[in-house]
UniProtKB/TrEMBL annotation:
Residues 617-667, 703-725 are annotated as: Disordered. One of its GO terms (biological process) is cell division. Its main location: cytoplasm. It comes from the Eukaryota. It comes from Branchiostoma floridae. It is found in: Cytoplasm; Nucleus. Belongs to the Integrator subunit 13 family. Keywords: Cell cycle, Cell division, Cytoplasm, Mitosis, Nucleus. Residues 705-714 have a biased composition (Polar residues). GO terms for cellular component: cytoplasm; nucleus. Transmembrane segments: none annotated. This is Integrator complex subunit 13-like isoform X4. Pfam families: Mat89Bb. The gene is LOC118415983.
Amino acid sequence: MAAEGNAPKIFPSSHKTVVILDHSPFMAEACGQTVDFDILPKSRAAPGIIPLAPLAKSLWTCTVEAASEYARVVYDVYPPRSRDKLLKFVITDTEARSLNSWLEEEQSLSNVLQGLAVVGPPSDSDDAENCSVMHGLAMAVESLCEGSEKQLEHKASLSDPEEPVVNKGRVVCITTVKSQGHIQMLEECMQEAIVQHNKIAEAADKLPITHCELVLIHTVPVGADNNIQDQPNKEVSSLLSCEVHSVHSGRHIAAKLALLVQKHFHLTSTTITGIPMKEEQNASTSANYDVEILHSKDAHIEILKMGYDSSGFACSKDSFGRETVILKWCTPKTNIVELQYCTGAYRITPADVNSRPSSCLTNFLLNGRAVMLEQPRKSGSKVISHMLASHGGEIFLHCLGTGRSPLEDPPSISEGSGGRVTDYRITDYGDFMKENRLMPYPAPQDGQILPEKEAIAVLERTTRYWPLVISDTIIFNMASHTDPLPTLITKAALTEDEVVECQKAIYHLVGMESRSEPLPIPAMGTRGKGPKRDEQYRQMWAELDTLLRAHASTSINHQKVLECLQEIRRPAEEAKESSRKAGKKEEVVVKEERVMTEQSTAELAWQEIQRYKAMSERERSDFERGNTNNDHFRHRQQTEVSSPPIKKLKTSLEDSQGKQQGGPPSLLAIWTSRINSKYNSRHCEFAGRLTAEGNKAELYVNLQKDGTNGTSDKPSGVKQEKRGP
């Protein structure tokens, strides 16, 4: 106990809260928001019965309801037996009186309601001029100087009785102010009261106020003019801070206090959606309802770290600006009675305790049932993040671990974020950790670099280029050929001998490439034959250049190692560039020759066509007579196109005219074939040639048969064509 007392303990402002309710005659006015007393609809009303007029609550009634709900939330989430969050109600009119004290037995909602019932509503007959909220502020300051049970126990446990106890508090005052000057007057009154009571507390062995928060809530009827503006929290002095909230009465002041209770006591809202519930009118049907609950913000600490937008949780706001985290009712297939991996449990309370969905959910949980809650997601598998269950008659929101549990086996190093990776450099990483171990070191002398900073600098240089996976590196997989270059290049300074050693390693790699030696690269992570040898060397030189560039700025000698690599690789790069350019030029020349050949062939074919058009009819007939018949020509054309060219010993002028040697038919041959087929379709064959043997027919056959003058009329050795009969 003594050890606990020696530790400094600070009681926050939420430890003690004084709620001041203005009981002046002004609070007896109507709030301006009516309530229908006659719930029967007008269409079903009996004839002759006048419906009851709607009722209007007073400002006092709305204030008491809102303050009671404020107290209910605090007492539900922080039960009085914990003695962490204490409330004290003060009524002020012509004088101030307290409804309870800081004792545990008086910290209950029923005790507060009994005191409010005894006070009753304000009366119009009271002296309004003598009613002031300053009486309540003075009593609130006096109450904050009184120590709570926890504070008194902590003070008694201190080894030094003169050691001060940090005593903070909050005052929530619900009243109606007249102007901004009235607010300043209340601040000055509060400041003066704190100073006076602190002096009294030091003499009377009480607790002086270290700091006090004043929350003024200015309320007016609904629809009335409100000239008071909201003021954020401001520091009036080192002992007092003040903020002003201006709201209308009715449901507006209830929503404002519901928002303030979350702010004052570190609470947040969660809405459970999709709760299946039977209808009250028809038990055979069911519908889905939503229930809002309040609990400590620590239940959503992971959401607060990531932010609502980046996390998988959904968040919405109501018309009063209250945020709520949305969780979905889930019915898992597994047994939820089993032990769950839970990271925290926090008491809850319904935001609307009188609603039927809240009552049904509360009864369901108090009967020993449990509810699993999942994060609503647009895609992917569902994640069960919370669970509702009751313990000892109280309902708790359990935070379930969505990641790995410490009770499970530790994850394997081969399980990466992108899936299962099996080629991590585990051995190299073990050596890396051994080289960067931290050890005790004596206090540094003046001007000496701190060991912590020096260790961070070494770690930064070592990790400038450090591939995690074996398949992502080549030079670290062939240490026998690259050593000591990867080790020396990470040093803060290089000597001349070390520069020479690095250059020798580079020359050794150049010799390997000149001898076309294969690189000792493991086959992990590759499929098939892998990259070719030239490609492997290209990747190795690129990686080595990346490593040296990462350390070139360390010192001048590091830059010399990089320059050595660049000088060695420059001729090879220039040769590759020149060969690449020469290949491009040769390709361009071949393309140009091909284009010129095609152009010359096309020009020759076009000249042949023009020459054929310029021929006379006699020349055309002689030209066509030199070609074979149409069928023989088509057969030759198909043979020349489909089969490879055949080298002929003798080629006539007629066969070679208009045709490319050893290739497909030219444009002239195609044009000639078309002309021949056209004229052959119009030509009637000579009857004598049809009956003659061969392509020639003898003339004057009848004269030879008569034997009269056949020999004298016919020239010797000349055959003439036979004409038609």
